[in-house]
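Why this split exists: single-chain examples teach little about how molecules sit against one another. For that reason, every record in the complexes split bundles all components of an assembly together and asks for one structure covering all of them. Below is a record exactly as it appears in the raw files.
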Amino acid sequence: MKKKISEAVIKRLPRYYRCLTELEQEGADRISSHALSVRMGVTASQIRQDLNCFGGFGQQGYGYKVHDLRAALRGLIGLDRTYSMIILGAGNIGQALANYSGFDKEGFYVKAMFDVNVSLTHRTSRNIPLYHIDLLEKYLESNKVDIAVISVTQSEAQNVANRLVASGIKYIWNFTPSELSIPEDIIIENVHLSDSLFTLSYRCRENGV
Amino acid sequence: MKKKISEAVIKRLPRYYRCLTELEQEGADRISSHALSVRMGVTASQIRQDLNCFGGFGQQGYGYKVHDLRAALRGLIGLDRTYSMIILGAGNIGQALANYSGFDKEGFYVKAMFDVNVSLTHRTSRNIPLYHIDLLEKYLESNKVDIAVISVTQSEAQNVANRLVASGIKYIWNFTPSELSIPEDIIIENVHLSDSLFTLSYRCRENGV
DNA sequence: TAGATTGTTAATCGATTAACAATC
DNA sequence: TAGATTGTTAATCGATTAACAATC
C-alpha cells in the first residue's frame, strides 16, 4: 500500500528527466544528489525525497547512475510508450502545436485536427489531416485517442470539452483561458498562457517598472 | 513594512481576476468569499487570506463588490498600463503568439519579431515587423521593451537570453524547454509545454491506460 | 578500511484551513 | 436589531529541509 504522491513531486519529475537527459548527452556516468542539487538549484534532500517516493534508484557512497535514473524517470512519467493525440481548433496555437516536431520525439503523435473552418487545410503541414469538427464523434468511434488538445476559441471550449468527454476522452490538454467543468474522472492539464504572462506584469508593477 | 507575498498567492491572482471578469460580464454586483469559493473550487478562507495580503477589499456582512474587486485585482496584477513586447524566434510558437490578439486586449503589445530567417516575413500578420536577429541590439537601443519572449530553438535560447540581458531586458517569457541561466535580478517566467504534457502521460501511466 | 552518499526518520518551515470577534 | 460576512488570529496540515544510521 503505497502512499499518494503529492502534486508538487509529480510536477518536478519532468524537470528531473530534462536534467538527466542533458547529463547523459554530456556523457556523465554518475551524479550525486548533491551535484544535481547544485545544477538544478534545489536541495539534495528534496531530490532524494522525491525519488524515494518511487523507489531506491541510487547506491550508497556512489550516487545515481545517470543512464539508469533517466530510464527510470522515463518509465515513471510514462514515456516508454506512444500516445495518440488530436487537436481541436486549428487556429494559431493549434497550428503551432501541430507543426512542432518536439513532441513526436517523445512519442506523442498528432493524428488529426478538427476545426469549424476546414479551408485552413493548406497550412497543416506534416501530413496531419484537418477535419470538420462535425466529424469528431465519428472519428473517435473508429480511432483510439489518448489525449485531446483544446485550442478552440474560449466560447467554444466548454462545448468541445463536453463532446470529447461524451465520446470517452479521458485526458485533456487545455490551452483556452476557460476553467472547463468536466467530470471528476477526467484528467485535465491547463496551459493558461495569460496567467503566466500576468505574473510578469505583476513583477513589473512590484518593481515599479 | 509589508511582509513578502508568497509565490503561491501571486500565481492565484490571475485566476481570481479571470473569475471576477466573468462575474462582471454576468452582471453580478456582489459576491461573498463563500460563493466565490464554491465557484472556483477553493476554500473561502484561502480567498480571504489571499486578498488580505493586499488590503481589505470587502465589507463585513456584505461581501465584495464585483466591479471594485476586479478593478483592484487589475491594479495589483499590473494590468492598468500597457507593456511593449518583442518576440525572439518566428517559428511555430512565435508566430502563434504574434498572431494571437488576446494579449492586446489586456495591454500587451507585440512591437517586433526577430529571427535568423527573415524570409518568413509573409506570415507575420497584424503589421508586426520581422527583423533579422542581428538587428536586436540596435533595436533595443532606440525602443523601450518591457518583456522579451523567447521562442527560438533550444540551442539558440541561452545565447539569445544573454544578448537580451546585456541589452537591459529585465523580464523574459521563455517558451523553450531550456533552463536559462540569467542574473538574479532578471525575472523569468517559463512555459515548459513538454513538462505540462508529461504530467498527462504520468496520469495515463498511473491509471494504467 | 575510510570516505562518500544514499534512504529515511525527525525537525522545521510555510501554507492552508478553521474559528471567531469585529462590524456592516 | 439580527443576520451575514469580513479580517485576522490560531490550529492544522503538508511539504521542505536537516540529520544521521546504513551501506556501498
